[in-house]
Give the backbone structure.
Amino acid sequence: MQRLVGSHAQLLDDAVRAKGVLQPGEQLMWVSPRAADNWAEYRDGEFLEQIGHPELSPALATFWPRGGPQWDALGRGDAGTVLLVEAKAHLSELASTCTASPQSRARIEHSLEETKRALGARADADWLTGYYQYANRLAHLHFLRALHVPAILIFLYFTNDQRMNGPISCDGWSEGLRAVYAHLGLPPDVPIPHVTNVYLDTRELA
């Protein structure tokens, strides 16, 4: 991600624009990771500052305990669009389970249930185990959209990462992603609102 945003940002810009998630003519700026702040990746109130919405910090503290998602990249469009990026290079990165304390877990569960209802997911789907990271990214997108922030969640999947033995094509990600959607009880073959998958070949970063 550091190399992509630092010296190949046009690749990411073009891939995002091709998905049609920006307003016509909207200019995009990547606010993290950046060399200027040692490639920091932000979470909690700090990520809200980066996307230009520090006023939402009290609401986020109610919605989610500290230690929330740490974003691989964050972008801002000059028309107000906010881009949240979660990047993966190999299939095993898709799996995760919530390890929060009981007190934090109760707040997380409440917010995940709210997000499930908003997305029409199966009520009995387990969002705390199996693919918790994917679920909590959806929850934070829901948080922002519910507060009228025009946010887009981008799942960035790298291909041909030989060092990580990752998928060689977007088709190589398909089976793993089908398992994610099925486990989370998301409607099959129905796009998740304001969520898009982007695929980039790591060979383009050489």
Notes: The two ends are 13 Å apart (CA to CA). The chain has seven helices and five strands. The mean pLDDT is 95.
